[in-house]
Queue: 3 jobs
Job 1
Amino acid sequence: MASMNHSSGSEMHNMDHNHTNMAMMHMTFFWGSNAQILFSGWPGTRAGMYALALIFVFVLSVLVEWLSHGQLIKPGASNVKAGLVQTLMHAIRVGLAYIVMLAIMSFNVGILLVAVAGHAIGFLLFGSRVFKHSEMPPYVKTSDLPPMSC
C-alpha cells in the first residue's frame, strides 16, 4: 500500500495561523467599513479612511461621467490634434471606469452605492438637460467621445 504523507501538528498550526492573518476577501456583498478597496490594507479598519475611500470612488465616478459627456475639443481643431485628444480622453475614461469597477469588486455595499451615486450625479451635471442653457436639436453632438458600452 502506498505510504501517505502526514503533516506534523506544528505545520498545521502554522498553516492555520497564516490563514487567520490574511485579510478576508468577501465573495458576497457586505456592509461595513472594514474592507479592502483597490489596495492591500486600504482603507484598513479606521472609519475616516473608509470615508476617504467612499469619497475617492464617488469622485472617480463623477469624472467618468464628465469625460463621457464633456466637450474639450474646440470646433475647427485639426483632425490629427482632435483625434489625439479624443484617444487620450478615451484612455483616461476607460482607465477610471475600470478602477471604479475594481473598487466595486470589493463587494462593499457602501462602495457600490457611492459609485452609482457618482455616476448619477455626474450624469445629472454633465449629461442631462437640467443644466443646459439652450434647447439642443437631437442631431447636435454633445460629447467628444462615443458612449460607454458595457
Job 2
Amino acid sequence: MAKSLNCPAECTCQYLEVNCTGQQLQDFPTTIPLDTRQLILATNNISYLPSVELNFLSDLVYLDCRENAISEDLDFAFISLNKLIYLDLSFNNLTRVTFTTFSQLSSLVVLKISDNPNLVEIEKDSFANNTWLRHLDVSRTGLTFLDISIVKDLPNLKSLGLSENLWNCNCSFLEFTLWMKESGVRFPDPENISCYSPAALNGWSMPEVESKLHYTCLLHLHDTDYAFLGLIGFCIFSAGTVAAWLTGMCVVLYEFHTTRGGDDEDEDEDEEATT
C-alpha cells in the first residue's frame, strides 16, 4: 500500500482509501486526505469522533470504526457525511441513539451498532431520515425493548439483527412480534432471538412467544380484569337501580298531583251546580 503526502503516519493510503486498522490509535488521526472515500479505523482505542475533523471528509461513503472505545455522545458527529453508505460502530461503548445521531446520514444503507453492551436505548424516530437503510444490526446490546415505529417506517429494510439481547417480552412487545412475523424482513441468527424476561417466558423464541402474548394480552383475563369488570357491573347495576327508583318516584308524584288536580276540579263543578 502506498503512502500519499497527506497520509497519517500510522495508516496506509491508496487512492481514495485510508486504512488505520490495529494501530493502537488513541485519537482520531489527523491529515487524512479530504477526498477520502473509504476510512477504516477498526481495532484501535479511539473513544471520540471529533465532528469538525470528521465532517471535513464530506466525500466519505464507507466508515469502519468497529472495535474501538467510542462512548461519547455522537449527536451531530456526522453532520456533513450525507454521502455515507456504510457505517460500522460495532464493538464499542455506545449508550444511546437519538434522532440527531444519524439524522444527517440520508444515504445510509448499512448500519452496524451490534456488540455495544451499554446500548440501552434507541429513541423513537432515530432512523426517520435513514429511509435507504437496508441492513441494521443491533445484536448483543443492552436493549430490552425496541419500539416498533423505529423499524416499521424503514421502507427498504431487508435485514435486522436482534439476536442475544435481553428482550422483555411483556404485552408492549406483542406488536413488535407481530411485525416480525408479517414484515418479510430477514432476521439473522433467529434461533438466538429469544426472551429474557419475564421469568415465565425466559428462553422462548419469538415465533413461540407471539402466540403466547396474543393469548395473554388480548384473550386471557387476569384476576384484576375480573375485579374491574365486576366493579363496572356493580356500578351499572347501582346506577340502574337508582334510575329506576327515581323514575318510579316521578311517576308516583305525577299520578298523585294529577289525581289531586282532578278531584279539585270535580269539587269546583259540584259547588257551581249547587249554587
Job 3
Amino acid sequence: MAGKLKLYYFDGRGKMESIRWLLAAAGVEFEEEFLETQEQYEKLLQGGSLLFQQVPMVEVDGMKMVQTRAILSYIAAKYNLYGKDLKERALIDMYVGGTDDLMGFILMFPFLSAEDKEKQRAVIVQKATSRYFPAYEKVLKDHGQDFLVGNNFSWADVHLLEAILMVEEKKSDVLSGFPQLQAFKARISSIPTIKKFLEPGSQRKPVPDDEYVETVRRVLRMYYDIKAN
C-alpha cells in the first residue's frame, strides 16, 4: 500500500494551499515538510527533486511532482473530482482558470508594502465583484444546479470556495450582491470533508503573517520588493 502523500512547501498558504484544499476535499490524508532554511531548499535542489528549481513539490504514487496546475489536475483526476467526460473536464479547467486569475491578485498580497496593500485590496475587491463573481453567479443561475459542472462536486467547486473565502478576508460582505454565490458557499462549506477542513486544527493555513513572509524571503533569498498590480 502506498504511503501518505507528502507536501514540500512553507508553513503557509502560497501556491500549496489549493493543493491542501483539494486533498482535503477528496478526504485524502497527507504529510508536510515545511521549508524553514536555505539548507533544506538547497538539499531538494541538489537532490534533483525540484525539476524546475521551485516548490510546491508533492510526492505521490512514486513521483515527485512539481508545477501547481499539474499537481492539482492529477489529484482531481485520481480522486474523481475532474468531471465524467472531456467536455466536463474542459469546463472545470475553464472555471478553475478564472479562479486562478482572481487568486493571482491575492497571492502577492502578503509581500506588499502597507501602502501597496491598501491599493491591492481595492483591486482584489474590484476584480472579484466586477469580473469573476458575476461570471460564476451567472453560471449557477443559468443551469440551476448545486455545483458548477455536471451537478457533481468537482475541483471547480473547491477552488471557487477557496477564492470566495480569500476575498471575504479582504471585504467581509463582498458576496452581498451575489445570492447564488452565497447559497453556493453555504452548500459547499457543508460537505463533510470541506466542513472538516474549515474547522480549527485542520491543515488549512491561516492568513499569511509577517513571519511567513520573512521565512519565504529568507529561504528563497527574495531581497527585492513586490509591487501591486
